[in-house]
Design goal:
- The chain folds into three domains: about 55 residues, lambda repressor-like DNA-binding domains (434 Repressor (Amino-terminal Domain), Orthogonal Bundle), CATH 1.10.260; about 130 residues, Response regulator (Rossmann fold), CATH 3.40.50; about 120 residues, Response regulator (Rossmann fold, 3-Layer(aba) Sandwich).
- It contains twelve helices and twelve strands.
- The strands form two sheets. The chain has a six-stranded parallel beta sheet, with helices on both faces. The protein has a six-stranded mixed beta sheet with strand order 7-6-8-9-10-12, sandwiched between helices.
- The longest helix is centred in the last third of the chain and has 17 residues.
- The radius of gyration is 25 Å and the shape is elongated.
- Bound molecules: alpha-D-ribofuranose (RIB).
- The site of alpha-D-ribofuranose has 12 residues, from helix 9 and strand 9.
Length: about 325
């Protein structure tokens, strides 16, 4: 014989209180009742192995305990580490992380924003620059959805944001290469770079004269880094600043394929400090972003916004630092 599903009525009968009382207590409003009543209801729930229906509960308290996270490229280890940081905080706060990989595709991002909104997520974390400000206004602001931007998405002064100091990062990379005697440097970065990456270039230019910097358009990928090597070799550069570690890993292969050695022929510096930097030969010198902490800080700030929707906008900036390994060297 099939077991009859336990319902809220059974819990009410067992604990000797009304269905409304059980519903209130199981939906987080236990403070309205005496501790004895709450205990009786909790005990009945446990004895009967009652699991409140998620959707019914959502109808009552209008909370999904879910946060939508939009990233541009989940295959990039920077974003997986970032998501781990986000998830670390959300998990501890009993929230579920709903991940959407946007592939730098504006149409896809828009669909994700609308669908997440329709599914009633409690907040949004947006790390992708392809999300247009129009979509943010139409889908998030009008519906008063809490959200926070970071990394590639600019805050524009009208939302919470967590940033890292990209200008200082670009500057530190340049100072390091200059201190090693490199006069001419190739910078590998996307042609239509997001604001954070443009700031890295601005920081770089605060040290090097633009005439000595050879900017080569490269997507944020290993493949693009590898393919950019012939263009680098056509310049007088003796050092390469890759604006992400992924690009730098591609450069490693590209240089090897062209019979060049790191750091004897070219010094290479990356950006991010993903774990892989320690597992390539030579180990990659890079500008470290506090990636896990960036995720944690962002999630905490969003939870604070959900709890206090009227807080003034907050913008936090985390520091970056040079991690010197074996891929950069003095010019011979
Ligand atoms: O590797 C991904 C890069 O793009 C990182 O530097 C990150 O900051 C991003 O915008």
């Amino acid at each position: 014989m099939k077991n009859k599903a336990v319902t809220i009525k059974d819990v009410a009968r067992r604990s000797g209180v009304s269905i409304a009382t059980v519903s209130q207590i199981l939906n987080g409003n236990g403070d309205k009742f005496s501790p004895t009543t709450v205990e009786k209801v909790e005990a009945a729930k446990a004895d009967l192995h009652y699991e409140p229906d998620y959707f019914a509960q959502r109808m009552i308290n209008k909370k999904s305990k879910t946060i939508g996270v939009l990233v541009p490229d989940i295959t990039n280890p920077f974003f997986s580490e970032l998501i781990r940081g986000i998830e670390d905080v959300l998990y501890q706060a009993n929230f579920i992380t709903m991940l959407c990989n946007a592939d730098l595709n504006e149409a896809k991002e828009q669909v994700y924003l609308s669908e997440l909104s329709r599914r009633g997520v409690d907040g949004f974390i947006i790390a992708s620059s392809a999300v247009s400000n129009q979509a943010i206004t139409d889908i998030l602001r009008r519906k008063q959805h809490p959200f926070i931007v970071l990394d590639q998405k600019k805050a524009e002064g009208v939302s919470d944001a967590v940033l890292t100091d990209d200008y200082a990062g670009g500057r530190q990379a340049a100072q390091h290469l200059q201190s090693l005697g490199h006069q001419e440097v190739a910078v590998l970065m996307p042609a239509h770079a997001a604001a954070n990456i443009q700031k890295r270039l601005a920081g770089f230019y605060s040290v090097y004269d633009q005439a000595n910097v050879h900017v080569i358009a490269t997507a944020l990928s290993k493949k693009a880094g590898r393919e950019a090597v012939p263009a680098v070799m056509a310049t007088p550069a003796t050092a390469i600043f890759a604006v992400s570690d992924q690009i730098a890993f591609g450069v490693y292969l590209g240089l090897a394929e062209n019979g060049r050695q790191i750091p004897q022929d070219y010094s290479v510096i990356g950006y991010d400090d993903v774990e892989m930097c320690q597992y390539v030969v030579p180990q990659l010198t890079t500008i470290a972003q506090p990636i896990f902490e960036l995720g944690q800080t962002t999630a905490k700030q969003l939870l604070a916004r959900i709890a206090e929707p009227t807080l003034p906008w907050q913008e936090q900036q985390l520091a970056v630092k040079l991690v010197e390994r074996a891929s950069t060297n003095n010019l011979k």
